[in-house]
């Protein structure tokens, strides 16, 4: 694990432990309401309170350490309004609110996230980048990633790519390449996911509640916009697929040879070999079998007389 990954893992572990300690503390408080003078419960309550305080202090230290590692211009992964992680770039830091302005590098959207919603950047693995394969490649002109095809891999380990739909080419390091399929190219949730840090608590004052409401409103608005974009893209892809399928069927029909058993185009037409230039075979009228002249007919056999049978 890198330094940033280790800090993330430590913070995640502390969050889990803190939740467990707080749950245990609540259980002990419930027992104390039933047995107010129980010395064992009182001692356990005090110990758990100290553990919770220590864990919160440690979390604060780790979070501060992480915040120093996140700088403007860094590539990271950040949570979008759908609650999922996407490749992003840190554009600004607001120290008064402890929030970070980011640009999502695959879609071009911008957003504002808290430190808990940022984690280290992950580029494509070598196994995901092959000659002739599709990737998302970094375009220096605007700093975003676009679909591209890998043309060659140089002896120095660089990747030469051609951007799809353009004639532009680039030679990039592996760090500037993402897999063509993003981890979250699946269905969006029904509604926007509000980060835990923005959920309104009973202990929040009026100013804090108002600030959280405004930020939640922005998150929901951005999520609605993103959902419309995704639905529009799906319909567009579906329509293009339909048109492509229709064109293929039409081409197949045009190239299809006419069957010799196809129904004629007019009432006078006949079913038979088409395109031979010859007329239909004339079989004549159907009649009972004609044996021709008598010489060729089989000899008739007469029935025996009754007297011959009785002897």
Descriptive overview:
- It is a single chain.
- Helices cover 38% and strands 18% of the residues.
- It is α+β, with helices and mostly antiparallel strands.
- Strands 4-3-2-1-5 form a five-stranded antiparallel beta sheet. A five-stranded antiparallel beta sheet has the order 9-8-7-6-10, with no helix packed on it.
- Helix 1 packs antiparallel against helix 2.
- The radius of gyration is 40 Å and the shape is elongated.
- The relative contact order is 0.07.
- The N terminus and C terminus are likely disordered.
- Sheet-strand content, in percent, reads 15-25%
- The strands making up the biggest β-sheet line up spatially as 4-3-2-1-5
Number of helices: 4
Fraction of residues in helix: 25-40%
Number of strands: 10
End-to-end separation in angstroms reads 119 Å
Cα Rg: 40 Å
Query: What order do the SSEs take from the amino end to the carboxyl end, as H and E?
Result: HHEEEEEEEEEEHH
Mean pLDDT: 76
Low-confidence stretches: 1-7, 291-311
Based on secondary structure, the structural category is alpha+beta
Query: Judging from the principal axes of the Cα atoms, what is the shape?
Result: elongated
Query: Describe the biggest sheet?
Result: 5 strands, antiparallel
The protein's oligomeric status is single chain
Concise account of the structure shown:
The chain has a five-stranded antiparallel sheet with strand order 4-3-2-1-5. A five-stranded antiparallel sheet has the order 9-8-7-6-10, with no helix packed on it.
